[in-house]
Structure formats: structure tokens, C-alpha cells
Amino acid sequence: METIKIAIAKGRLAKHSIGLLEEIGIDCRILKEDSRKLVFHLSSHQLEVILLKAVDVPTYVEHGVVDMGIVGKDVLMEQEKPLYEVMDLKFGGCRFSIAGRLGDGLGKKHLRVATKYPNVARKHFASKGQSVEIIRQEGSVELAPIMGLSDIILDIVETGKTLKENGLVILEDVAHLSARLVLNKVSYKTKKKEISTIIEAMGEKVN
Ligand code: PRP
After folding, report:
1. What is the best residue among 156, 173, 174, 176 to mutate for testing ligand 1's pocket, by most ligand atoms within 8 Å of CB?
2. I need a surface site. Which of 31, 39, 160, 163 has the fewest CB within 10 A?
3. Domain coordinates of the chain in residue numbers?
4. Residue 159: which region, alpha, beta or left (left: phi > 0; alpha: psi -120 to 50)?
């Protein structure tokens, strides 16, 4: 049996991702210990788990440094890397929405859009023929319309709490998002047996 390497996005998807590995029979106790470790050898299962920032997961999978990864659809839509997206894991459900201040709309001729997802925003507004200026942000995007940096934002909305507490409202929903299982294209051929076993086991738990 070959060792399968899997990258897991740290942050909001990590707990569910580890939970899914446990559901398919993998002992993940060392992953839950309070440590700063990033690489975990689960030798009894021929598995290596690495914890990465979500935005870096597709890069590791694309380069074949890991065979598979669990990452949000938001990151996949933004990066459009050549990976196999094989399964909607159904957790981490949220959406890409456009939001702005109450009373403001999308009617302006030229909109300034603050976002952590410039490619998604560019594509979305291009498909509507709307002229926009994209203002890239790294976080706390909700601040931009409040402070006058942008007219609107395109961001992830999960509970809606951040928007509400900052006086913003949803103007349009763009896409439903959730965690996805992605594969390196070469690994899928060279380690097909091991990878298929994992996919099948996950599939049974997810559906
Ligand atoms: C995300 C997103 C929103 C918030 C939405 O930010 O960018 O700000 O979560 O969640 P809610 O609808 O449940 O309030 P994140 O927490 O990842 O932090 P960031 O703003 O630093 O990127």
C-alpha cells in the first residue's frame, strides 16, 4: 500500500475535515492535540495529513506534493487550478454574496467592489456586463463600504452575523459554497486503488 498524503485547510473547515477522516475509520487523535505541528504521519493507516492555510491547499495538490485535499469551493472558484474536484463534502455550507449599505443598490454605473476574491468578482460582474473596480482586501472586508473605500463587497456569508453587526445587507447571492475533496491528476492515476478506497468511504458518509 502506498502512503496517501492529504492536505486539510486550517480554520473553519478543519474540525469537520478531521471528523470526516474519523468517520471513515482513521484514528485522528494526534491531529486534535494542541500543538503547532503541521505534518502528521498516521502510519497505521498509510496516511499523511498536512495542515495548511486554505488558500495554499490547491497549490500543494496541483504540484503533487500531496495527493488530495479538503478545501472550500470559494478558494477553488478563485484560483481555478487544474485539479479534479471529486466530491461535495456538504459541510462548511455558506455562500458568496454581494452586500452593501442599507438603501444602496447595484444600480450605479461604475461600482467599487471590495473583496478577498478578485477573480470571482471580476467574472461575476463581467457576466452581467457591469463595469466595476475591484479593490482587493485580505480580511474584514465589511469595513470597506462602511469607511467609503468601496460601494459594495463580495464575500462569504455564513450566518449573516458579520453583515448585520456592521449595518450591511445582502444585495445578491452569487453561489452556494461548501467543502470539496480535490485530487492531484497524476496521483489519481498512479495511486488509483488507495485513493478510490478513500473516496468511496467518504462518499458513504457524506451522502
Ligand atoms: C469570513 C467572511 C465574513 C465572515 C462571514 O471572514 O469574510 O467576514 O466570515 O461569517 P458570518 O456570516 O457567519 O458572520 P473570516 O472570519 O474568515 O475572517 P476575515 O474577515 O479576517 O477574512
Report:
1. 156
2. 39
3. 4-92+178-206, 94-176
4. alpha
